[in-house]
Each structure stands twice: as C-alpha cells, then as structure tokens.
Specification:
Blueprint (H helix, E strand, L loop, with lengths): L11 H19 L4 H10 L6 H11 L3 H18 L5 H17 L6 H17 L6 H15 L5 H18 L11 H14 L1 H14 L1 H6 L5 H17 L21 H11 L11 H4 L4 H15 L10 H14 L12 H18 L2 H9 L5 H16 L2 H9 L6 H19 L6 H17 L12 H24 L13 H4 L2 H13 L1 H21 L7 H18 L12 H5 L11 H14 L4 H7 L2 H18 L3 H4 L5 H6 L1 H9 L6 H18 L4 H16 L2 H7 L3 H12 L8 H13 L7 H23 L4 H4 L3 H19 L6 H10 L1 H10 L4 H18 L5 H22 L9 H30 L14 H12 L11 H17 L1 H4 L4 H14 L5 H23 L7 H4 L1 E2 L5 E2 L2 H15 L7 H14 L1 H13 L4 H14 L11 H22 L3
Antiparallel strand pairs: 1-2
Helix pairs in contact: 1-2, 1-3, 3-4, 4-6, 5-6, 5-7, 5-8, 6-8, 7-8, 8-10, 8-12, 10-12, 12-16, 15-16, 15-17, 16-19, 17-19, 19-22, 21-22, 21-23, 22-25, 23-25, 23-27, 25-27, 26-27, 26-29, 27-31, 31-36, 35-36, 35-38, 36-39, 38-40, 39-42, 40-42, 40-43, 40-44, 42-45, 43-45, 44-46, 45-47, ...
Length: about 1150
C-alpha cells in the first residue's frame, strides 16, 4: 500500500482535483443545491484510489472545514473496513497521523474538525489495540502524555485532553462505536484500558489541571488555561463514570458494611440514575490519600468566591464540570476504602459535605437569592450530593456526618432544605416545572433512599431527630398539596386521556410522601384523621349555603395521599399491611381506637354517603368518586379480610405479644367488620356503574381496579357471593340492560370479575351452575338472534350491533376468567355459540369492530379451554377453529384495495393487522395443547395432530399477510414467533407440506433473515438451524429427512427450484460476508450455517472456490483460501452435530469474518 505521508509529485494533480470536487460538494450541501448529488460525491471519496494520501492532502491543504471533516470520516470508514488487509506499519501510520495532525493543528479555529480527527484516531487505536504490542501502545500514548502535560503548549494541552476523552469514550462499551466486531473484542479492550491506563489518564488530567491552577485563579475566564482546566475536570468526571469491572471480584463485590446494603443501590439506580463509583483499592492513593479532593473543593470555592458577583459563573462550563466531578467523588464506595468499619469513608464524606454545604445552607437565603435571579444549578447539585451520600450511608451515619463540623445534623439540614423548597413551590403558584419542582423531586428521592426498608439488619432505624424531621416535612407537604388542590379547584383542565392519568401522574411523589408519613406515624396518622374530619365538618355545616368545590378538591388530594400512606401497591400480589403501621401504637388495645382503624372507618363512612342520591348529587362528583374508588381498591387489597387476621395457628403467640397488631389485622376481618365493609364496597361499585353514565374513567376504575381487588382472594369471594348487594349486581348483569351503557372494555372486565367470584362457591358443581346462571341468557340471545330469519335486515341496525358487541365482550370476559372449577360451564358456553359465531362472522363481515370481537372471543376461549379438553372435545374445537379461519380467509383474500385513499388504506390495513394478530394468537393457543395437556386421554390414536392443524392454519392465514402488513412490528413478531416455533418443534412435518405451503414458508424465512429486527432474524436462524440439523441427522440414519424440499424440484412453470438448504446456505453466506447486520447475530448465524454446510458440502466447496477465483490479488486470494479451510477445520472441528462442535464453529466463524469480511466488501 502507498505510503501515507509522501504522495508522489505526479499524483498532486489528482489530489487537488479530488479536493476541489469534495469542497464543491460540501458547499452545495450548505447551499442546499443538489444535495443528493453532493452526498453521492462525498461518499465516492471512500472508493477513491490512493484514498489515504488523498484524505491526508485534503486535511492538510483544504480551506473548507467541512471538506476536512469528510476526509477524516472517510479515513475512519475505509480503515475500519480494510483493517484486516492493512500491514502493521500501515495501521501504526494511520494512528500516528491522526495524533500528529491534532497536535500540530492544536490552534485551529475549527474545533469540530479537530474533534473528528481525535475521534478517528481513538477509534483506529481501539481497532488495533489488541494487535499492537505493549511498547507500541506506550509509544502512542507517550505523545499524548507530553501534550496533556503541556510540553507542546497550552493549545496542544487542550487537544491532548480531548483525545483522551475520545479514547475513554471509545473504550467504554456503553459509548463505543460499532465496528462490526464481536462483543468479546470490546470487552477485552475495555479490560485492558482499565487495567493499564485508566488510572494513568486520571493522573495526567490531575497534573494538567494543577499546572494551570494559578493562571485560572489569577486571570479572567477567557484565558485558554480555563478551557484546559475545564477539559481536565471533564475527563476526570468521565473516568469516574467508567463502569469499573476489575475491582468487582468475589471479594470486592460486597458493598462496604458502612452502607445500608445493596438494595438501596439497585432501587436508586432505577429511579434517579445515581451511579456509584467502585474503582477498587488501587485508586486509593490517587483519589483519597493524595489531597486531590481537598484541592478540587478549594479550587471551586476560591473561584466561586472570586466570581460571586458574576450571575453567569455558576452555569459556566468550568463550574458545571467541577461540580459534576465533586458529585461523582461523593459516590465513591467499595474497596477504595480500607476495612476500618467505614471510618475513612466517613471522613471522606464529611470532607465532601464541608465543601458543598455553602451550596445549600442556609436554605432560606439561597432560595431568596434564586428568586432574585441567581442560578439554581448549584443548589440542585447540592441536593444531588445529599442523594449520593444517603445512598452510601445508614440513616444514623448520614445524620451524624454534619454534626462533626456543625451543630446541625444532616437530617435536620435535609428537612429544612426540603421545607424551604416546598415553601418556594407554594409561593410560585404555577404548574410549570421550575427549579423548586426539580429540587423537590431530588430531595424526595433522598428521603426515599433513607427511609426505604432495607433487606438486612436494623440499619434503617431513624434517630429521634429524623422522626421529627420526617413529620415536619410531611406536614408541610400535605399543606402544600391541599393549597394546590384548593387553588386548582376551578381550573377547566382537560381530564381526557387514560383513566388513571390524574392519579398515576402523582404516584411516584405519593410513594415518597408515604415513606415520610410512616417514619412518624404517631404524628402523621392522627394528622390525616384531623384533616379529613375538618373537611367533613365543613361540608356538613356548609350544606346549601357555601360552595363545596375547594373542600371536595382537598378531599380528592387527601384520599390519594392517605391511600399511599395506609397501603402499598401489590403489583399483582396481595400487599401486606405496612410494617410501620403494624409495629406502632403498641399501647392501643381496643381495635376501634387504633388510629389506622379510626382513619379508615372515617373514610369508608364518608364514601358510604355516596349511596344516598341527594348527598351524591351535592358532593360526590365523578372526579371525587374516582379518588374514592381508587382508595377503596388500594385499601381493600390490604385490609379487607386479610389472611393474617384470620390465622389462628403459629401467629397466635406473636399476636398475643402485640395486641395492637392483632386488633388492626382483625377489625376488618371475616369475623368482625369485614363483611359489612365488603357490602358497602359492592353497593358503591353498583352506584358508580349505574348512576354515573358516560363517566368512563370512573367506570374503568371500578371495573378494572376495585372489583378485581374484591374477587382476587378466595376467602373474600366466599362472603361476596352471599351478599344481597352482589346478587343484585349479578342480576343486573345477567338479566338487565342498565349496564349495557358501559364501554366494551368495561363489559369484558365486569364479566371477568363476575365469573371469578365463582371461586367463593362451596364446590365445583355450584361454581359451574353459578356461571350458567350468569351467562345463560346471553348465550341464548346469541343463539336466537343468529337463527332469526330476519337477521340480515336487522343486523346492521345500531341497537343490534350494540347488543351483539356487548354480549361478545361479556363472553370474552367470561372466557378470560376460566378456572379449573368453572372450566366445564365455560366450555359449554363456547360450544353453544359456535354456530352463532360463524353466522355472525358471515353477517358482519363488513363490520370490522364486530369481526375483531368475534375473533378475540374465540382466541380467549380456546386459550382457557384447550389444555383441559379430552380428545373428542379437542376435535370439535379444532374443527370449529378451522371453519373460522377458512370463513375469515374467504372474506378477506385480496380485500385491501389499492384504489382506496391513503388514509382509508391505512385504516383498513390496521383493521386487518388486528384481525391477523388475533388469528395467529388462536393458532398459538392451539399449539399449547401439545405442550401442556391436563386431559385424561391416553390413546394416541384418538388424539388430534395439533401440528398438522396449525400448519394448515398457517397455510390459510399466510396468504392474508402481505409484506405491507408485516411492517407492523407486533404482527411481524407474532407471525415469526409462531412460525419459528412450529419449524423448531415439528421439523418432521415440513417434509409433509405440499409445494404451495412450503413455498410460503421459504419466502417467509427469506424475508425474515433480512429483517431489521434482530429478534426476528434470530428466530429465523434458529428455525433454519433446526431444519438443517433435522435433515442431516435423518439422512445419517438412512431416512429421507426433508425429502424433495431439500433436494429441489420443478415448479408448475417447469422452472427448477433449488432446495431450501442450498438456497439458505447461499443466502446466509451472502449476508455474513457482504451485507450489514448486527454482530449479535453472528452466534445464531453460526448455529444455522454449520448444519447447512454439513448438508450441502458440495455446494459449500463450489461457493468457496468461486469466491476465491473472484479475488484478483494473489496475497488476498491465499488469505481467503486459508480462511475458508480454517472455517471448517480449526479447533478440531468434526462433522458431528453436537453442542461442543457448535461452540467450536462459532469461534471459527468469528475468526473467519474478522479475517476476510473487510477486504471482501471492497471487491
């Protein structure tokens, strides 16, 4: 290859001509003249002869900055692509050129060009990192070190630091550039840099910053030394953000005992993106013992004082970088500190806290200054410091940190700061997210970290000051929320959207409020009771004489807060009564006097008044009822007939030692007030469903939150089904029309809850009869209407469509609630409507919404029934499903018309997409019969061949799925999941498919392996692996395998169609060698390619020979031949298809692609 730096004189004309062409193209793009042509011209640079010399010439001679930028980009792209064929000298020369260029042009005004060349140099250095010897790595970095330490001047110092930034970014897997290499390569580079150089880089940045400190302190912020110091701090911060792995061995992974445990660390990472830094003991001298932190805090403090009259300094790049590094140093943990029971870490945190205390204290003065125009950024960073420190310490240690340098405890400081921020939020009287909004959220995260119950020990115990601080903060927060509620009472906000949007928006903050309240329950529970009592009194005394709107809005807010304080979100499980509420109030012996009982009863009594029509009209607006229903759902999940309260075995001793706990758990139990409260809840539910027509948000909370909470537990259902109120609701559901006004989703959910309550019946026979009584009238109506001779004339009437839709959604809800004890009745329900379903599908074939409901009912019914069915019933169900598929297919083949407008075409495709997803789900549900089968049939002869049925179903459905429809990601994923499952589990069935069905599968797999979704490509590759492996093993046993599908055949037009294995061997090699794909696919591709090669060894040899012959360069031809030989012979690879050989072939393929892919793509 040509020397990079000494172009021959006769080539000068070519270099200049190319440079002018690229400059013109760059100018055209800026002027928006023929941008497509200009972009093509720039891309053609990558195919230019003598590319590296040309790009070097442009970089050193062009006066157009963008042309130089494009030249650097071209060097990067081509070098990465051709790396495998570059000589060792060429690789070193490329890296050296980038380093020399940025240092020699350090004073260039075009920073983005310098940044690009630095990034290219870093990327090329990483690409060759594992190729370079240690001495070569040292030689490169010694040049960078000299620049960073100032040997080439201040401008070069800045550039050198920027180059290290690029290197650290490139070597970190999270921010590295894609190079088409396996993950192991990136991991090896990361580990090498962390082990040998990362600490050196940090030290160089320290020295660089220290060398310019005097100049930075003495001069104004415009001098270049400030930029150098800023860049050095930024690099140090970047290194502190590194995901240190080498220090996390078995000994060092444990969090220091100084911390309250790993759980807070994980929770905090999820919520606040707080990254704890664990660099290991080798960094102790650099970060802890060297005085580095004292220097940093002193430098920031000095410049802060110097710039105290400059309102913009706090937001300057230097100030921001310094504070970021300070915050990150606050998060140091792990074995960087010795095993001294946390003493050194405590001293470190005290030092950090003493440096940042002026950012946040005194809170009132700082808040006032911010309101008068001072930047809030420093206060917010100070809040983040408290968050990081709280992450690393127990509450006791957190509180005493500040006491060593101040009479104030850290918890008291946190409390006063939180209160001041809340007061500022109250004073702003705006819904915009101001500084106080962000500060409040950070401080609430800090409180959450302190108060979140840990997994081990008693480290979370709060000192008395902490309990008082929590009570103070909660008191003010509640005052703030009530003020906001009252102020917004007359707002005309748009409450449309998700049913729980107004509640869920506050959920995270409310959870933090709950932790604060539970930390001081002796104060906060009585406070909430008092606040409710005051508002109830205001309502009653002002009835008819004053506007209750503000009071009702305050009650809405109080209900949300109290619901979070009293109960946790079970997230699908039954939540327990919070331990803080169980453990306190130990002196309370009578259940009625327990503060939690008093508070709960006052709210339930208030909610019960909504049953009175007059009171409901006066006070219980839909919005307030939403909060009531939400509260009752959350509360009943925890307190209504709790299992703990009913146990009288091992827990007796514990209850006897804690009478207050027993009183709390038993008051709303099965043998006390539980049934009475359950009756009230059912009556309120009936009221919301009937008396609030059109209030979909309220009805969704009732159907999808409250009723599921009531029917979730069998012991509650046992009492529920005995209540007259529940019988009234069931009668209205089964026989009345008052509930037909509910939306389709709510109909479905209501039916599901009604059926689930059957779990409370005394036995299976009673449960099945209960289901028949509930659903019998509905199934009879569908049977009657479908057999009506006038059906075609009345079916399209709105009332008829509404009735059919409601009944279908109810049937679907019942099907979704299928349980073993009610399976018989629900199966009978489905059998009775099979014929009506097919009739309605025919009648409503042009009503897409009804068609979709019909399909979804069948999907859910089959899903709940298929695993329980005996052979005879399975045959009936499968036959029905095939009739359904064929009927739907006959209505929809070619139905989408290209003559429709784009909007109508898109709408119709969306309707088809939903239908086809439902049909694919139906086929998947049928598949489950072969995986899970609870039937008692033992005769194989009587069983339905599920695989054959599903393949037939796919044959029916596949023609409906066009390439346009496969652009819908969910449909595409569902289709390939089902297809790959069938091919993987039943490869023997492929040989039995007819040519048309098989052609569909081949076309689909071909589409799938070129899909942009890597998961879909993976599924197709797994399917190819199974098919090829099946064929290879079957042929080895003397059987046919895939038969003619593997050998190839003549199509109907007399044209030869090659077999599936040979076709995909060629397609997969083409993909791996010449096309773009994610490196994550290489392992799956190797697993598919290995059996394909074994099946088609002759074709593989021919393809390899053709590939070699196409290569004109003798040296590359030899390399390619050797690489192809090694692919199938290295690592003692044999022709046996087993796990060990598959692993060997994976390694061989990685090596093969690394060796040849780069130069093959340049052919």
């Amino acid at each position: 290859m040509q020397n990079f730096f000494n172009g021959r004189p006769e080539d000068l004309v070519h270099f200049q001509s190319t440079m002018q062409t690229i400059e013109h193209a760059c100018s055209s793009i800026q002027m928006h003249t023929n941008p497509a042509v200009a972009e093509a011209t720039i891309l053609s640079l990558r195919q230019s002869p003598q590319l590296y010399q040309t790009c070097k010439f442009i970089l050193e001679n062009s006066q157009v900055a963008n042309a130089r930028f494009q030249a650097a980009a071209a060097i990067r792209d081509v070098a990465i692509r051709e790396w495998g064929i570059l000589s060792a000298d060429d690789k070193r020369s490329l890296v050296s050129f980038c380093l020399c260029f940025v240092i020699q042009h350090a004073s260039s005004p075009d920073a983005y060009v310098q940044g690009k060349v630095s990034a290219v140099g870093a990327q090329l250095m990483k690409r060759g990192w594992l190729d370079f010897m240690e001495s070569e790595q040292e030689a490169f970095l010694s040049e960078v070190q000299m620049a960073v330490l100032g040997n080439h001047g201040v401008a070069a110092q800045f550039i050198g630091i920027n180059f290290l930034e690029s290197m650290v970014s490139e070597f970190s897997p999270a921010t590295s550039t894609a190079m088409g290499l396996p993950r192991e390569f990136h991991e090896q580079c990361r580990a090498s840099l962390e082990l040998h150089y990362l600490k050196k880089f940090y030290c160089w940045a320290q020295e660089a910053a220290f060398s310019v400190t005097n100049k930075v302190v003495e001069c104004d912020s415009s001098v270049l030394e400030v930029k150098v110091c800023d860049a050095a701090l930024r690099l140090m911060f970047q290194i502190m953000n590194w995901d240190f792995q080498l220090s996390k061995n078995a000994h060092e992974r444990a969090i220091n005992v100084f911390s309250s445990g790993l759980r807070n660390y994980v929770v905090l990472l999820k919520k606040s993106e707080c990254i704890l830094v664990q660099p290991g003991s080798s960094w102790r001298d650099v970060l802890i013992s060297s005085g580095h932190i004292g220097w940093l805090l002193s430098l920031y403090g000095t410049l802060r004082q110097k710039s105290s009259f400059d309102t913009y300094w706090l937001d300057s790049p230097f100030a921001v970088s310094a504070r970021q590094l300070i915050i990150q140093l606050c998060s140091l943990t792990g074995t960087i500190f010795p095993s001294d029971n946390g003493q050194m870490q405590e001293l470190h945190l005290v030092q950090m806290l003493s440096g940042i205390i002026q950012w946040i204290h005194p809170p009132d003065i700082i808040s006032a200054a911010i309101e008068n125009g001072k930047s809030e950024s420093e206060l917010l960073d100070g809040c983040r410091v408290l968050l990081y420190i709280a992450t690393l310490t127990t509450p006791m240690v957190f509180d005493k940190l500040l006491k060593s340098i101040s009479p104030l405890g850290t918890l008291s400081l946190l409390s006063s700061l939180t209160c001041e921020v809340v007061k500022a939020r109250m004073a702003e009287n705006t819904k915009e997210e101001t500084w106080s909004w962000y500060a409040r959220d950070i401080l609430l995260d800090t409180w959450t970290t302190i108060l979140q119950p840990p997994d081990i020990g008693k480290d979370a115990e709060l000192p008395p000051e902490g309990i008082r601080a929590s009570a103070c903060v909660f008191n003010l927060i509640v005052e703030s929320e009530l003020k906001d509620a009252s102020a917004s009472a007359f707002d005309d906000g748009d409450d449309s959207g998700l049913p729980q949007a107004s509640i869920s928006a506050m959920d995270e903050r409310l959870s933090s409020y709950a932790l604060l309240a539970r930390a001081a329950v002796d104060v906060t529970i009585p406070l909430l009771t008092k606040l409710f009592s005051e508002r109830f009194t205001l309502l009653y005394h002002g009835r008819g004489t004053s506007d209750p709107t503000c009071t009702l809005e305050e009650l809405y807010s109080l209900l949300l807060i109290t619901g979070h304080v009293l109960a946790d979100d079970g997230e699908g499980e039954t939540p327990l009564v919070p331990e803080a509420l169980q453990a306190h109030f130990v002196d309370i012996l009578e259940a009625k006097q327990h503060p939690v009982v008093v508070l709960s009863c006052s709210i339930i009594k208030f909610a019960e008044q909504s049953l009175d029509p007059e009171t409901r009209a006066a006070y219980f607006s839909p919005r307030l009822m939403e909060a009531v229903i939400w509260f009752l759902a959350r509360w009943s999940d925890t307190y209504l007939m709790p299992l703990e309260g009913g146990r009288q075995s091992d827990g007796d001793c514990q209850h006897e030692s804690q009478p207050s706990k027993k009183a709390l758990l038993s008051f709303f139990g099965e043998h006390n007030q539980g049934k009475l409260v359950l009756d009230i809840i059912v009556k309120i539910s009936m009221t919301t469903l009937v008396s609030y027509p059109g209030e979909t948000q309220l009805q969704e909370l009732t159907c999808c939150l409250l009723l599921p909470a009531v029917v979730r537990r069998k012991n509650v259902c046992a009492h529920l089904v005995t209540l007259d109120s529940w019988h009234n609701l069931a009668n209205a559901f089964a026989n009345g029309r008052s509930l037909f006004s509910l939306t389709a989703t709510h109909q479905r959910s209501l039916a599901e809850n009604m059926i689930r309550s059957a779990a409370g019946m005394r036995n299976s026979e009673a449960s099945n009869q209960y289901v028949r009584d509930l659903m019998g009238q509905m199934t009879s109506y569908l049977v009657d209407i479908s057999s009506d001779s006038n059906l075609k004339s009345i079916a399209q009437q709105p009332d008829a469509i509404l009735s059919v839709s409601c009944l279908l959604e109810r049937l679907r809800g019942a099907a979704r609630a299928s349980q073993p004890r009610t399976q018989k009745a629900i199966f009978e329900m489905g059998i009775s409507v099979m014929k009506p379903i097919l009739t309605l599908l025919e009648i409503y074939k042009h009503e897409s919404a009804v068609v979709y409901m019909l399909l979804k009912f069948v999907v859910d019914w089959v899903d709940g029934q298929i695993v329980f069915l005996e052979a005879k019933d399975t045959t009936i169900v499968v036959s029905f499903c095939m009739q359904l598929l064929q009927l739907y297919s006959s209505h929809n083949i070619g139905k989408i018309s290209l003559s429709l407008s784009s909007s109508l075409l898109s709408e119709e495709r969306t309707e088809k997409y939903k239908d086809l997803r439902a049909l694919l789900q139906l086929l998947k549900n049928l598949c489950s019969k072969d995986l899970v089968d609870f039937s008692s049939d033992s005769s194989e002869a009587e069983r339905t061949d599920i695989a054959q049925v599903v393949y037939l179903g796919l044959h029916i459905v596949t023609p409906l799925i066009s390439l346009e429809l496969l652009k819908y990601p969910k449909l595409c994923r569902d289709y390939f999941e089902l297809l790959s499952h069938m091919l993987e589990v039943y490869p023997e069935k492929v040989a039995q498919l007819n040519n048309e069905a098989f052609a569909h599968i081949v076309g689909t797999l071909d589409f799938g392996i070129h899909h942009q979704d890597t998961e879909i490509v993976n599924m197709c590759l797994r399917a190819l692996n199974v098919l090829a492996s099946y064929h290879y093993k079957e042929r080895g046993a003397g059987k046919e395998g895939l038969g003619s599908h593997a050998a190839g055949m003549m199509d109907q037009g007399g044209k030869w169609q090659e077999g599936i294995l040979s076709r995909f061997l060629q397609a997969l090699l083409q993909l791996l060698l010449f096309e773009d794909y994610s490196t994550e696919l290489v392992s799956s591709a190797a697993d598919a390619l290995f059996p394909l090669i074994l099946c088609e060894q002759g074709l593989y040899q021919r393809l390899g020979h053709e590939l070699i012959e196409r290569q004109m360069n003798p040296q590359l031809k030899s390399r390619l031949a050797n690489a192809l030989q090694c692919l199938t012979s290295s690592n003692e690879l044999s022709s046996t298809l087993d796990r060990i050989n598959s692993q060997k072939f994976r390694k061989n393929l990685y090596a093969f692609l690394g060796e040849v892919r780069g130069f093959l793509r340049t052919m």
